[in-house]
Structures are given as structure tokens and as C-alpha cells.
């Protein structure tokens, strides 16, 4: 159910022209605690969970979304590696006699079967949940600035396509993350990110040249910063522009209108608090209109 009286938008920087008006975000409640869902993914059990659920992890949170689903998570390393669930063992609750579990190092997961719960965690980086409207298969991606610079989202899309997905059938939701208006980075970092969407023929090889190209885009991910050598950068918009370059229509992409840095009541933010605390985002694969 929707949390009574809550607004669906609270940070204007996260609203962008490419998003369809028909896409909405809803606050759901479990045990009086809020988590966020996106209408684009209504067919799939999913959620972008808030700090209120801490310290619960993927096993407990899967019980909220789809009790009985197999659980998958990773040791995230800010790279662009994406693993298939068929390469991994499901996560199980440790008992008192077993050692602490270890997880494969990567930042993206792609489901291979029905009823698999895929989880990523974040605390300013971008959690991305992807679903295929035909096969029912899903992916979950943790896209920090380093992963975005290494094009982790296109890598996850490529793996879905390799499993039979068509680009026009994909639905992509980017959850709460630090918003561009408050995310200060160096010009060099902005250029590294901008190089993923800027054609080589259109810009000079310098960081300033790439940033100048970005400033000229109709929807630019770069904003001015008063400190010399710094800019503000919208990582979610950069990921959306990468998807557009792949041929994915922006009507298939939703960006949550919430900023982890600015909303301390709902979200952990490493940039704000410098604490290693995270919120989890997950999605469960469903049956498709064709055989899995």
C-alpha cells in the first residue's frame, strides 16, 4: 500500500524530460516501514528499500517480495563485471557452526531462471533494476561512478540480449541515488564519465573539451560548481544516455525522484555521513510469455 500523505517527488534535480508522465513511483509499506516501487516494473516483485530496514539483508528482504525465491547477491567492487545466476550458488542463511559466507566479486547480476531474487546494495551509487517484458527475466546492477565509467549497464544489457532479450522489451528503473545537484566531482572524473556518451569526433581529447560537449547536450549530466576544477554530475542521467546510445528508448527508463544525500530520513549516504551503511534493492524474475 502507499504510505499515507507521502509525496512521490522530493528533489527536482532527479526529474528529467525523457521520463514518461505515465511512469510513477509508489511508497509501499511492510511492518510500517517504507520501500519504493516503480510502475514500470509492476509485473515483477521488486523494491528499493530504505534505511529503515537496516540491518536486514537480502534473505530477510526476499521474504517481503517473494517468499521462497532463491536469493542472489554479490561482493560489490565498483567494477563492470556482471554474473549470471547460473554461475553462482544461492545465498543461504548461515548457522552458528558455519563460517561467514563469501560472495563472488562483481557489480551486476542477471537471472537465468524463474523465481530468482537478485539484490544490490548502495549508499549514493545507482541501484538499477531491469526486467524483460517477454521472457520475465531480470537483472540488478550497482552503478557507481566507476562502474558507470566502465559501462556496467550496457554490459548487463548485453548479457540479457545474449539470453534472448530484445531491447524494446526491456524496462529499466534507477532507484534513489545521490542527485547531480549535490554530487561534486573533479573535471577529470566528469570527463571519464562523459567519454562514455561523447562521440570521439565531437570533442577534443582534453577533459575540458569533453565537459564542454556535455554542457551542450539538451539534457546535460554536468552542472557548474563554484570550486575551481570541480563540477556537479548526474550519474543516473549519464547511465540513461548510455542506454539511449544502445538504442533503448528513454520511455523504457525511469529515474526515481529521490536523492540519498538530501533525504537523511529515508536513506544512508556515504558522501553525507562517511559511514559504511547501505540500503538494498531487489527484483524477482517472473514467468514470461515465451519459454524460459
Principal-axes shape call: globular
pLDDT below 50 for ≥5 consecutive residues: which ranges?
Answer: 1-17
Strand content: 15-25%
Kindly state the mean pLDDT as a whole number? 91
In this structure, how is the largest beta sheet organized? 6 strands, mixed
Helix content: 10-25%
Rg estimate, integer Å: 18 Å
Category by helix and strand content: alpha+beta
Q: Number of DSSP helices? A: 7
Q: How many strands appear in the DSSP assignment?
A: 15
Spatial strand sequence of the major β-sheet:
1-2-3-15-7-4
Explain the overall architecture.
With 292 residues, the protein is of the alpha+beta class. Helices cover 20% and strands 24% of the residues. The chain has helices at 58-65, 145-149, 152-162, 187-194, 207-215, 235-246, 270-273, and strands at residues 25-30, 33-38, 46-49, 70-72, 82-84, 108-110, 116-122, 126-132, 138-143, 170-174, 184-186, 222-224, 230-233, 253-255, 279-284. It has a 6-stranded mixed sheet with strand order 1-2-3-15-7-4, covered by helices on one side. Strands 5-6-9-8-10-14 form a 6-stranded mixed sheet. The protein has a 3-stranded antiparallel sheet with strand order 11-13-12. A hairpin with a 5-residue loop joins strand 8 and strand 9. Residues 1-17 have low confidence and may be disordered.
Set down the secondary structure blueprint:
Blueprint: E1 25-30, E2 33-38, E3 46-49, H1 58-65, E4 70-72, E5 82-84, E6 108-110, E7 116-122, E8 126-132, E9 138-143, H2 145-149, H3 152-162, E10 170-174, E11 184-186, H4 187-194, H5 207-215, E12 222-224, E13 230-233, H6 235-246, E14 253-255, H7 270-273, E15 279-284
Parallel strand pairs: 4-7, 5-6, 10-14
Antiparallel strand pairs: 1-2, 2-3, 3-15, 6-9, 7-15, 8-9, 8-10, 11-13, 12-13
Amino acid at each position: 500500500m502507499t504510505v499515507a500523505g507521502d509525496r512521490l517527488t522530493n528533489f527536482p534535480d532527479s526529474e528529467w524530460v525523457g521520463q514518461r508522465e505515465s511512469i510513477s513511483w509508489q511508497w509501499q509499506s511492510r511492518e510500517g516501514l517504507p520501500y519504493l516501487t516503480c510502475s514500470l516494473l509492476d509485473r515483477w516483485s521488486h523494491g528499493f528499500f530504505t534505511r529503515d530496514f537496516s540491518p536486514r539483508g537480502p534473505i530477510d528482504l526476499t521474504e517481503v517480495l517473494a517468499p521462497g525465491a532463491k536469493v542472489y547477491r554479490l561482493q560489490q567492487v565498483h567494477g563492470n563485471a556482471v554474473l549470471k545466476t547460473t554461475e553462482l550458488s544461492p545465498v543461504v542463511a548461515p548457522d552458528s557452526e558455519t563460517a561467514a559466507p563469501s560472495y563472488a566479486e562483481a557489480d551486476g547480476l542477471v537471472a537465468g531462471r524463474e523465481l530468482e531474487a537478485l539484490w544490490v546494495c548502495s549508499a549514493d551509487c545507482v541501484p538499477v533494476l531491469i526486467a524483460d517484458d517477454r521472457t520475465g527475466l531480470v537483472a540488478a546492477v550497482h552503478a557507481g561512478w566507476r562502474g558507470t565509467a566502465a559501462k556496467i549497464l550496457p554490459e548487463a544489457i548485453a548479457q540479457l540480449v545474449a539470453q534472448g532479450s530484445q531491447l524494446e522489451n526491456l524496462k529499466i528503473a534507477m532507484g534513489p541515488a545521490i542527485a547531480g545537484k549535490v554530487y561534486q566531482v573533479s573535471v577529470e572524473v566528469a570527463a571519464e564519465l562523459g567519454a562514455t556518451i561523447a562521440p570521439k569526433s565531437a570533442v577534443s581529447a582534453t577533459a575540458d573539451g569533453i565537459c564542454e560537449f556535455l554542457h551542450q547536450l539538451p539534457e546535460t549530466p554536468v552542472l557548474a560548481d563554484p570550486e575551481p576544477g570541480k563540477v556537479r554530475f548526474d550519474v543516473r542521467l549519464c547511465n540513461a544516455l548510455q542506454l539511449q546510445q544502445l538504442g533503448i528508448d528513454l520511455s523504457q527508463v525511469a529515474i526515481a525522484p529521490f536523492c540519498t544525500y538530501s533525504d537523511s530520513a529515508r536513506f544512508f549516504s556515504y558522501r553525507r555521513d562517511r559511514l559504511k551503511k547501505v540500503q538494498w534493492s531487489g527484483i524477482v524474475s517472473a514467468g514470461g510469455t515465451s519459454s524460459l
